[in-house]
Amino acid sequence: MPQVQITGLAKRYGSITALENINLTIREKEYVSIIGPSGCGKSTLIKCIAGIVKPDEGEILVNGKSMGDVPIQHRRIGYVFQELTLFPHMRIIENVSYGPRVQGQSLQSSRALVSELLDLIRLSDRASSFPSELSGGAQQRVAVSRALASGSTLLLFDEPFGALDAKVRMELRYEIKRMTTDLGLTVLHVTHDQEEAMSISDRIIVMKAGRIVEDGSPLELYLRPKNIFTANFLGEANFLEGKVVEQTPAGSVVQVGDTCLQTVDQTRRVGEEVIVAVRPEFLQVTQDLKGQNCLRGKISGIRFMGHMTRFEVEVSEGRTLSVEHPICFGELDIEPQDEITIAASPPHIRVYPVPEDGLDRELQLE
Amino acid sequence: MPSVRLVDVVKRFGTITAINRLSMEIPDGEYVCILGPTGSGKTSLLKIVAGLTVPDEGEVYINDRLVVSMPPEERGAVYVPQQYALFPHMTVLENVAFGPLSRGTSEDEALRTAREMLEMMRLGHRADSKPDELSGGMQQRVALARGLATKAKLLLLDEPLGALDARLRVELRHKLRELAKESGITAIHVTHDQAEATAIGDQIVVLRDGRIRQYATPFHVYMRPQSLFVAHFVGGANFFQAMVAERHSDGSILELNQGLLVKVQDNTYLPGEEVVLVIREDRVNVAEPGEQIPSELYNVVQGEVLSSRFLGEFISCQIRLANGDLLTSRTPTSKTDRLLPAGQKVIAHFEPSDTTVYSYPPIGLTRELRVL
User: Fold this and answer.
1) Nearest chain B Cα to A36, which residue?
2) CATH superfamily label, B4-231
3) Residue A326: how many CB atoms within 10 A of its CB?
4) Pair (A185, A248) in one structural domain
5) Which pTM was predicted?
6) N or C: which end of chain B has fewer CB within 10 A?
7) CB-closest option in A39, A167, A219 to B310
8) What is the pLDDT of residues A223-268, one digit of tens each?
9) Would you call A307 and B235 a contact, using CB atoms and an 8 Å cutoff?
C-alpha cells in the first residue's frame, strides 16, 4: 500500500490557481523532494497533506485512509518548516518529548525514545539547554527529532534548511537523510535548492504553476529531462534553435546554424522546428575539428568557478554557449578571443518541441 | 570611482569582538566578496563602511578621505541591507525610483533608470505591483534595484541574493557582476555562499571571528588556501590527522591512522611532526577492482563505498578506507554518470602533487574546521 496517494487535488485562492489536478503516489520509505520556482504551489501541496490548507477538490489518502475530515492533530504526520519553531521556554528534552506527552504517554515511557533521538541528532549533551542557546542548525535538528518523536512514519519538510548557511545546510541535509533512512521513514521534502534535492532524494517531483511537470530519479531528470523546463530548472543548460533534417536509426539529426548535430532523440519528425539543450559541462573542448557534433566558436569570457572553469563561447553572431570544464581534467591553455572547438556526445544533446508561448516564457522562473 | 581602506578597525559588542583589528584595502572598481560563516563579522564590517556602525578603534577611508565621523548619506555609498525595507504604500516602480529621486535626479530620469533596473532584475512586468504582492525573493530584487538605481559608485550589499531560489540566484549573480563592471562600480558583497563569492568576486575576503583569513582572487583562495579553515570553507576537502614519517628531497611520507602511509610532495615538516593532510575531493580518483590504475601513482588505498550522492555536475562518493578513515571523492558527471552502490569495494588513488600539508592546529582539527 502506498503511504500517500493523491488524486485530482486542486486549490484556488480567488482567481489564482495554486494547485491544479495533482496526482501523486508516494511509496513507503521513499524520500521524495518537490522542487519548483517560488509560487509554483509546492508549499501549498505539502500543507494540504499536513492538513493546514484545505483543498477545493481531490482526495488525499495516507496509509489508505482518506484525510478529508481528519483534523491536523489526528493525522499523525510530522511537519517541519523553515521558521525555527521550537517552544522557546522549554528545554530541548521537553521540546522533543512534547509529542508523546500530549498524546498522553508518560514521561517514563517516552524517555527511552527521546534519549535515543537526542543521540541520533548528537545533542544528548544539550538536553537541558534552551533553544536560544543552540545554533540555527542545531535547533532545526531538534525540530526534526520532535517530529520523529511524534511516532509518525510520514514526515513533511517545508524548506527545513532554508534559513541556514550554505555550509551548515549541506552537512545537515546528509544527517537528516541518514536519520530518516535508518528509521525507515517516508519523507516528502519541499526545497528550492536543486542540489539539495538531487543529493538526498530517491525521486524528485518538478512543479510549475500549480502542476506537476515531471518526476523521476535525480539522475534521470538531470541527464534525460523530458521537459524543457526541467532541463533549465534542474541545473543550467544552453538552448539552441534548430530543425530536424534527418532520422537515422541512432536518432534525429538536428541542423543548428550550419552544423548538424546527431542526437538520440526518437520523438521528433523530419522538418520539425525544435530546441536542443546541452548542459555546460557536457560541452567539451576538443582538438578534433572533424569529430561528431563539433561547434567552432570564439572565447568571449573565462571565469574560474572553483571546481570548474566556465567559458563563454560565441558560436555565431549573438549566440553564446556556456562551457564548463572541471579543474580536475587539467588546465586548458585558452585565452579570450581564442578560436576553439567544442563538442557534445549524442546522448547529452536533448531535443524538445518549440514551446507554444516561446522559449523565454516557458523557462520563466516565476 | 571610490576606493575603500580600513586600518586597524576594532568593533566590540559587549564582551564579543565582532571585528578584531582588521585592515584591508579595496581598489577602485573592484568587486569584493566578503565570505564567512554566521557570526564571522561580515555584516558588521559592511555597516562600518556604510557608516551605520561606528568602530571602537581604527580608521575608515573612502577615496582616501577619513570618513569615521562622516554621516552615512555623505559617504557616496549605497547600502542594501539583508532586511530590505520597501515602502509598502508605493508601487515597485516608485520604490525603485525613490533611490535616484532622493539623490536629486529629475523625475523622468529617475523613472527611466528605475524601469531599466527592474528589467535587469527580471521584474519589469511587476512595476505597478505593491511590495506585499511579491514573493520574498522578488522584494529582495526590488531593494537591490533601488540601490543600483541610485547610481552610487560604492555599493554595499548584504546577502543581496540570499532570499532567492537557488536557480534564480545563479542567474542573477552573473547579471550583478556584469552591471557592476559596466558601470565601474566598486562593490562589497557579503555572502555565506562560497560558490557565489567565487563566481562574482574579483577578490574574496575570507572572514572568521572578525579577522581576515585570506584576501585573494577566487583562484588563489581555492587553489592555495592559506589555512585549513579556508580549505574547508571554500571548496571543501578531505582532512586527515597524520605524522611525518620520512622526509626526502622530493617529498615526504606521512603516517595516518593505523599506519597507513601516504606520499606527499610537501617536504617542509620534520619527521615526528603532527600535521594535517588535505586532499581536495575532486583530486581523489576511484577505481573498481580489476580496473587499470596507472602504475606510477604513489597512493593507492583499498576501501568500501558507504554512499554515493548525485550533485548534478558531480557525483560524490563516501568511502571507508582500509584504515578506518573516511574519504570523499567528487567526480564530474561528464566523466561517469554511475552511482557506485553502498558496499562496493573500490580503490581510491591520488597523486602526491595533489595533496597539501598543514601543521596540526593548536586548537585541534575539529575546532579549526568548525563553521558555526
Assistant:
1) B165
2) P-loop containing nucleotide triphosphate hydrolases (3.40.50.300)
3) 21
4) no
5) 0.90
6) N
7) A219
8) 999 999 999 999 999 999 999 999 999 999 999 988 999 999 999 9
9) yes
